[in-house]
Amino acid sequence: MQKLFIIPALALLIAAPAAAEEVHLTADERVEWHQNEQKMVAVGNAVATKQDMNIRADRMTAFYETSKKGGEKARSNIRDVHAVGGVVMTSPNAKAYGDTMDYDLIKDEMILRGKPVSKIVTNDNKTITATESITYYPSQDKAVALGDVVAKDPENTIYGNKMISFFTKNAQNQTELDKVEIYSDTNQVKIVNDQATVTGEWGVYLPKINKVRLYKHVVINQEGNILNGDYAETDLKTGISRVLSDKKSGKRVSGVFIEKDKEAEKNNAPQKKQPTADKAENKTNADKAGDKSPDWSLKEKE
C-alpha cells in the first residue's frame, strides 16, 4: 500500500482560545449591537478575525455576558458564536466549508455542519468530509467527525462512520496529531488505493511510528488475491502490508490466490514479430513431430 494519511484537520484550523486575544467582527451590510439581548449581529459577508484565522459567513451572531470583579471595570466575554450561510474557516494550513458553525465557549466545542457534507481541504490537497458534523474540543485536544466520513489524499481513500483525532503538544508547544481512531456502524472500515482494498471492523492510525492498523475480521484484497486475519498492519515508510493472527483467538491467517488467465495474458502481451519463411518452415516440421504443441513457449534460436 502507498502512503496513508489522516489529517489533523480542525487542529490546523483552530487553536484553544486565549482570553487576552481580540476578535474583530466586520460585515459588508451592517453590524448590529443588541444591548438588551447581549449579542452582536453581523450581516452580509460577515468576517470574524482572530490572529491568523478567520471565519466568514452570510450572517454571524455573537452572544456575550458581562462580568465584574470587585472594583474592576465591567468586561464583556463572548460565550458562543453562531455562523450561518456559506461558512468558510481559513487558517494558514487549511480551509473548512459548511452551512453552519456553532462555537460554544462554555461547553468548549466547535461544531461545523454542511449539506450534503462539511468539508476540510488542506493546502497539500488532502480532504476530509462528513455528512453529520465535524466537532473540535479545544481543551481536550480532540476532534470528532461523524456520518459517512471520508478522508482522502491523492493516493488513498479511507471510509468510516466516525473518526476521532487526538492531539498533543510537542516540545515547541505546537499542536500535533497523536493518533486517529476509525470506526464504522457496519463494522467495515475501509482503505482503498490503486493497489489494494483493506477492510476491518475498526482501525487506528499512529503517525509517530507511521503505521496504520485495522482490527477484527481483516481482509486485504489485491486484484482478487485475498488474505484474511485478525488484524492488518501497514508500514507507511516501506508500503508493506501484512495480515496477522491473534494468538489468543487460535485462528490462522488464510488466503485465496487467483491464477491469472493465461489466455488473457497472451492476448494482452505485446505481439511478436512474424518469423521468416525458413523459421516458419522449421516450426511447421517441429509441430508435426507430436500431436500436441506444448503449453509453454521456448525462445526460437536465431
TrEMBL record:
Range of residues in the leader sequence: 1-20
Domain Organic solvent tolerance-like N-terminal: 31-140
Molecular function terms, GO-annotated: glycolipid transfer activity
UniProt keyword annotation of Signal present: yes
Ranges that cross the membrane: none
PANTHER family attached to this UniProt entry: LIPOPOLYSACCHARIDE EXPORT SYSTEM PROTEIN LPTA
Disordered: annotated span: 255-302
This protein's name: Organic solvent tolerance-like N-terminal domain-containing protein
Signal as UniProt keyword: yes
Regions annotated as coiled coil: none
Alphabetical keyword list: Signal
InterPro entries xref list: LPS_export_LptA (IPR052037), OstA-like_N (IPR005653)
Domain of life, source organism: Bacteria
